[in-house]
Write a sequence for this structure.
């Protein structure tokens, strides 16, 4: 019905009815994109089962889409050993980002840090060492002494720092992890899973790209002592650029590896291998499997316009809608071109609408109809409530829908 006809109708509708307050939609709090829901691999070229690797548990994911490409017992509780230092570094990086710590800050080495067992950076008690030196010692040399010194600098004590680690773990959604120390030495209630470690690794790479390069340093020298990075894949595969090794007698040999080939980044988590060679071979096999049979593409960028649905009772008649985050999809090789996208809107849309408010759903489907991604569709800009006349006209139009 045209707006001219609606205005004519308004002349014969009682003023009391017209003046009645119009219902409004409650503005939604802007939210980050909901986790993408991935279906089974779409039909297409056959994808074989993942390789058999020598590890108690493993997980392979795509960094951008988060899709799991291979897993075995990924939720089984395991000792993280020195993979613990990934959460230690996460907490340290947050402190750097917030300005509570600077890489040039001098850190005094306590007796507790100096006496640390296991791998060492060989710092001396009572000396003052720049935070950056300790960070590199923690990540390259896996120095327990450097790690504890950083934990004490950021948390006051190592036990208080462990509480900070667990707080961040919960915020990241690590549901089966608990830390009791900063360095990963065995402790009764110190545990994690391959899935949680993959989640943490993905967050480190995404949130702190400026510091991630430290995980790829092949060697580091301090106090005239040069030690090599224990991640041997840094030498074997030029596309590997991180991220951390771990080992204790009870945990076995562990390795989290990330590589980037032709713009596609994968993360493999291997826990409980019987040797250094076994963990490296397992990680290499998983990465090669992922790159051989899968590909990742960017479907939409954050803020891209997807649709402009009609809005009732607003200052504007349409609102721009898009994705609240970059959307990536991982599918079998050769299947990206056959993907189909669609958007559905919660109708009718009634102002006021807040920027970031969820107003529908964006869906990506494969050629056979399998849903690959479901993601919120949000308003890219606010549309406040319109004037009295606009609200009255739109109210009449809604009565006739």
């Amino acid at each position: 019905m045209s707006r001219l006809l609606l205005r004519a109708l308004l002349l014969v509708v009682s003023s009391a009815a017209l003046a009645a307050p119009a219902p409004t939609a409650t503005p939604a709090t802007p939210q980050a994109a909901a986790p993408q829901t991935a279906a089974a691999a779409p039909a297409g070229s056959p994808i074989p089962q993942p390789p058999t690797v020598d590890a108690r548990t493993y997980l392979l994911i795509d960094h951008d889409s988060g899709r799991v490409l291979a897993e075995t017992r990924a939720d089984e509780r395991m000792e993280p050993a020195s993979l613990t230092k990934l959460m230690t570094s996460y907490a340290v990086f947050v402190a750097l980002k917030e300005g509570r710590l600077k890489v040039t800050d001098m850190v005094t080495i306590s007796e507790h840090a100096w006496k640390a067992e296991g791998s060492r950076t060989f710092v001396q008690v009572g000396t003052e060492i720049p935070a950056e030196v300790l960070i590199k010692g923690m990540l390259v040399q896996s120095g327990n002494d450097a790690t504890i010194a950083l934990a004490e600098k950021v948390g006051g004590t190592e036990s208080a720092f462990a509480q900070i680690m667990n707080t961040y773990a919960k915020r990241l959604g690590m549901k089966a992890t608990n830390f009791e120390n900063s360095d990963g030495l065995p402790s009764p209630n110190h545990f994690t899973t391959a899935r949680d470690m993959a989640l943490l690794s993905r967050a480190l790479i995404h949130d702190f790209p400026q510091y991630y390069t430290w995980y790829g340093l092949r060697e580091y020298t301090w106090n005239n002592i040069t030690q090599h990075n224990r991640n041997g894949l840094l030498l074997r595969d030029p596309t590997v650029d991180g991220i951390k090794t771990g080992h204790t007698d009870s945990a076995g040999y562990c390795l989290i590896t990330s590589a980037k080939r032709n713009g596609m980044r994968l993360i493999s988590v291997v826990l409980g291998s019987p040797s250094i060679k076994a963990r490296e071979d397992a990680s290499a096999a998983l990465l090669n499997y992922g790159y051989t049979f899968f590909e990742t593409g960017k479907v939409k960028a954050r803020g891209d316009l997807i649709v402009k649905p009609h809005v009732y009772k607003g200052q504007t008649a349409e609102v721009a809608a898009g994705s609240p985050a970059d959307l990536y999809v991982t599918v079998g090789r050769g299947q990206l071109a056959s993907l189909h996208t669609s958007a559905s809107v919660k109708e009718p849309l009634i102002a006021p609408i807040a920027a970031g408010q969820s107003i529908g759903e964006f869906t990506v489907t494969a050629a056979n109809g399998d849903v690959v991604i479901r993601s919120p569709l949000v308003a890219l800009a606010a549309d406040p409530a319109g004037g009295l006349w606009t609200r009255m006209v739109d109210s009449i139009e809604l009565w006739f829908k």
Notes: The chain is about 30% helix and 25% strand. The first strand starts at residue 57 and ends at 62. Residues 1-42 have pLDDT under 50 and may be disordered.
